[in-house]
HTH luxR-type domain-containing protein
Amino acid sequence: MDKSKVYEIADYKEGFTFSDQHYQCLFCGESFEEGVIYKDGELQQTAARAIKRHVATQHDGVLTALLSLPRSFSGLSETQQEVFTLFAQGISDTVIAQRMGISTSTVRNHRFKLKEKERQARVFVAMMSLLSIATPPLPHEGATMIDDRYQITEAERKRVIQTYVDENGFVQQFPSKEKRKIIILGETVKKFDRQKNYSEQAVNEILKQMFTDYVTVRRYLIEYGFMQRTKDGQTYWVHS
């Protein structure tokens, strides 16, 4: 199996992928072309049936093939692979314990650990799938929901900017109302590069170009979730 590739869960369960009109075995790379009839002795079969028969006969089925993969693929130790194989055969915990020379409580613990790994794997897959999705932060760290104060229309945004930001981009008076405050903070954070880290001094220099009380605005950027910083306050970055 190609360790550099990540397949869909459905592909792992089937033991093959389908791409560019070809079925390809995950375990050995054998390929079957759609539209071609394959002969297996007296048997003639489509590519879809041929790949399934290939996995079943050449690799003893998908589960056996997956369990035969090295630990770097499955994350299972040799003992866990052995226990998993016995579980898959429907053998009772008592019989498994006798065969492996361990107690039934140890077998039950193995079963629990495997279930725990499944739960962790599901959570991890969800986390990885979210890595590429840009999720906007909540308006501030204490917020548990976004209410009407944060439902900002483009017309409102433009009106607030025209009211508070002069032609030089300077905010003469920082608004006190939440919605207006959030609009100004949203415009302020655009001055920062999301791909960069900033020292506190660098943040101050940027904010000085827009605000007189830049220290308060810097605190608001953190409190309202637009930026984050390290615990020692030395490094800042845009929250994304």
Q: What stands out?
A: The CA atoms of residues 59 and 65 lie 6 Å apart. The chain has three domains: 1-75, 77-133, 148-238.
